[in-house]
Amino acid sequence: MDYIQIVGTKGKGSTSTYIANILSSAGYKTGLFVSPHVRVPNERISINGRLISNRDLNRLMKDTVETGYFRQFFDTSLRYFAEKEVDIAVMEAGMGGRHDATTRLPVKELVITSIGMDHMGVLGDTIEKIAVEKVAAMRMNCSTVSAPQQDQVRKLIETTALYRKNDLSFVDEDALVIDKTGKFTYKGEGPFELRNATGKQYINACLAIEAVKVLAKEGYTIDENHIRKGLKKTVLPARQQYIKDSDILVDGAHNVDSLKYLYETLSGEYKGRRKVLICSSMKDKDVSFFDTMANDLFEHVFVSQMDYDRSFRAEELAELFTDKDKLTLCTGTEDAYKKAEAYRKGKEIMLVFTGSIYQAGEILDLLDIKE
Q: What's the rounded Cα separation, in Å, for the pair 269 and 283?
């Protein structure tokens, strides 16, 4: 079994899923390990897009000797993929790189998504410190592909690649061309189509294309049609997911950088729309950008909370906002949804849920979204 490891701050799950779907479209039995899950734990482990069954998950989880939620699922994924004899497994790292469980694997390729500020209490309080932890996953004599990075991060990646004798390539943003229909070409190939065709998903898709091109050079049979099929069939829940029938956008953004990407989408693709924000967050996340978003984009804000010890209470989260007259405090996601629906009754107002992947899962459950 071959392994691909994905590290970074933003876009890991999306990029991992794009790569896995391209590989399965090319006929390879492909395992995928991602975290966190949006709605059910089974989402963390799948083969060719099919989630691990409850029976297999419970059986294998009982036998794990690992401690900690992430490591237990990681260990379970390895044993499940071995049982099912997958050809290649796409493994998304947790929060780091240097000490992450996935870094112990003998990978065929390392993929680095955009690196930004998150998990500062563990990884460090500057972009440079965080990047050092992520890039430490780079092995000797390996292939590495990276998303575009801030200058200081790119220099670190380039220096580490040189020292560890890696073949290194970066996504070329200038080679990405998006047409008015949302389809895109990359380095002259395409057009390709995304179901979540917003903002940085194009970069994540190009990173996946770069990753599979490396595999093709190393003997995998992957052509443009496999890439097209893999990208088009990828559904990414809670990644700027617009639900047209309900006029609701659901995004799991939970740090400043990802909230800024959401801001770009809302002020671009949805410019001119009336909008209200429904937000909640975990206490260890920096969602201070909520205030800028509220002032610039939203006519009202429903401040919510979740039933977790780590969740901000609505009263605590409300302290981030300067315009208190815009706020309505809510007891949970269902309460916030009902109040937001009552607020927009008879009006063309878009609801935007963001701040936590857990809240995203709760609203998707309430809406009974099948994909």
A: 30
